[in-house]
Amino acid sequence: MPRGRLFVVAGPSGAGKGTLIEELLRRHPTAWLSVSATTRAPRSGETHGVQYYFLDRATFRDKVRNGDFLEWAEVHGNLYGTPRQSVVEHLEGGRDVILEIDVQGARQVREKMPDSVGIFVMPPSLEELERRLRGRGTESDSEIARRLRNAREESKAAEEYRYVVVNDDLRRAREELCAIYVNESPLVKADR
Ligand code: ADP
Ligand code: 5GP
Q: What CA–CA distances, in Å, run from 191 to 2, 12, 137, 187?
């Protein structure tokens, strides 16, 4: 059984990372989406251990000190981190691991795991990003304003990535992400 590969999907909040990854996971059972830890409050419908591990700041800080995170960062005023052990276990157990993280975390992973594949999901415009964030209806107006301010800065990081997927037409963007995955996955190749 070959080892899996690490895929890092980053991009502004609301660009469509979650939507695109959902389709990838549906098509490819070889891919596993890592569950991050966060100090952000759960949104309605979110469950501890499913979308995130919801931790208080003290517990999160303890885990940072213990070296439990592969990467972590403060994003939009909350702390987010990738649990290291489950990532390593899945890679060694023959699964590709997908991280949906912010651009600061992606830089840390690139340093530590140069073999990882970086993919940046770019919204077609800031106006469309705002429409999507409002349409999703999961954040307050002030939270949306904060995410839009951060999006300008985050978008400058696109050039650091091996791949950029512009998420204008959803169907095309989905196909693009899946094609990148199929081309870069050692597990899909071994299966052929
Ligand atoms: P992210 O995970 O990057 O924060 P989401 O996947 O939650 O973003 O997408 C944000 C919103 O935009 C969701 O309501 C989603 O349904 C919508 N969306 C995603 N991709 C597209 C697209 N290509 N065209 C129109 N709406 C989209
Ligand atoms: P949300 O609060 O909307 O779920 O996520 C906000 C931002 O945090 C998104 O840009 C998301 O990619 C990022 N994020 C989620 N999990 C992690 C993580 O484990 N590490 C880092 N660095 N960012 C994360």
A: 10, 33, 40, 6
Expressed in angstroms and rounded, the spacing between residue 100 Cα and the centre of ligand 2 is: 7
Give the tens place of pLDDT for each residue, 100-131: 999 999 999 999 999 999 999 999 999 999 99
Q: How far apart are CA 18 and CA 141, in angstroms?
A: 21
Ligand 2 pocket at CB < 6 A: 13, 36, 40, 71, 73, 75-76, 80-82, 100-102, 104-105
Which atom of ligand 1 is least distant from the CA of 170? Answer: 23
Q: What pairs with residue 9 in β-bridges?
A: 100, 119
Sign of CA dihedral 121, 105, 141, 56: positive
* pLDDT reading at 1 higher than 90: no
Please give the domain boundaries of the chain with CATH numbers for all domains. Answer: 6-187 (3.40.50.300)
Amino acid in position 151: A
Which amino acid would we find at residue 161? Y
